[in-house]
Design goal:
The chain contains 10 helices and 2 strands; from the N terminus they run H-H-H-E-E-H-H-H-H-H-H-H. The chain is mainly α. It folds into 2 domains: about 60 residues, Winged helix-like DNA-binding domain superfamily/Winged helix DNA-binding domain (Arc Repressor Mutant, subunit A); about 140 residues, Four Helix Bundle (Hemerythrin (Met), subunit A). The N and C termini lie far apart (about 60 Å).
């Protein structure tokens, strides 16, 4: 069964709240992040908001803009590509080790994660779909027996959540495709087939990365074209 998460600190709660707004589109790229406004919106003091924004800046979701303070960073296509290449290697390793060390737990506990994913897809909730995806991969990381895999990925999850949100918001087919691929990976882990689990997991991440990067590149190119047209009109 999905594990109960430890209670989050106030700063972590604010981080999650800001990331959720970015993922949902409430805070788009280049939106200003005013500490007083965020503190009022979340019902907290300025201190946890300030600390949360510093963490998000370190993780690439927020940056400083001259004369504007902190803003939501535009998505960096090259960073997304590089991030998913690293994640594919780590997730592949996690799946292989999970098959070697955690086949029995995968058999008894794994179906609950797939059920949570199906429920999230049926609900249509973007936030629930992303959370179910995170929980599934966290489960494989745990089964791997190598805590460094999850610890290495953890700082990048806010950015990964954002990328998923940007693309899944406009895609009706990908959520079911992701769920189907999770089921195939879990089957390989349950069978104890480490090589197959690793291959499927890497393919799962790289396929998603290709879709994400292509769509982000199209958006980036369209934005650049619009900027050029504006300069010409001036």
């Amino acid at each position: 069964m999905p594990q109960i998460q430890p209670q989050l600190t106030l700063v972590e709660q604010v981080v999650n709240a800001i990331v959720s707004e970015i993922v949902d589109g409430g805070l788009p790229s280049n939106a200003r992040l005013i500490q007083d406004d965020l503190a009022r919106a979340y019902g907290v003091s300025r201190q946890p908001v300030q600390q949360a924004l510093l963490l998000l800046r370190d993780r690439g979701l927020v940056r400083e803009a001259p004369g504007r303070g902190l803003i939501v960073s535009p998505l960096d296509v090259d960073f997304v590509r590089n991030l998913y290449e690293v994640r594919a290697m780590l997730d592949g390793l996690a799946a292989r080790l999970a098959a070697e060390h955690g086949a029995e737990r995968a058999k008894t506990e794994g179906p609950a994660y797939l059920a949570a994913g199906r429920a999230a897809v049926e609900s249509g909730s973007l936030r629930e779909q992303i959370e179910a995806d995170m929980q599934f991969h966290a489960f494989l990381n745990e089964l791997s027996g190598n805590p460094l895999i999850g610890e290495t990925t953890a700082p990048h999850w806010p950015y990964l959540r954002r990328v998923m949100g940007e693309v899944l918001r406009d895609d009706e087919q990908m959520p079911q495709s992701i769920l189907n691929e999770h089921a195939a990976i879990l089957d390989a882990v349950i069978e104890g087939n480490g090589a197959e689990a690793e291959t499927l997991s890497r393919h799962h991440i790289l396929r998603a990365a290709n879709v994400f990067v292509q769509r982000l590149q199209v958006r980036h190119d369209a934005s650049e074209d619009e900027l050029r047209r504006r300069r010409i009109r001036r």
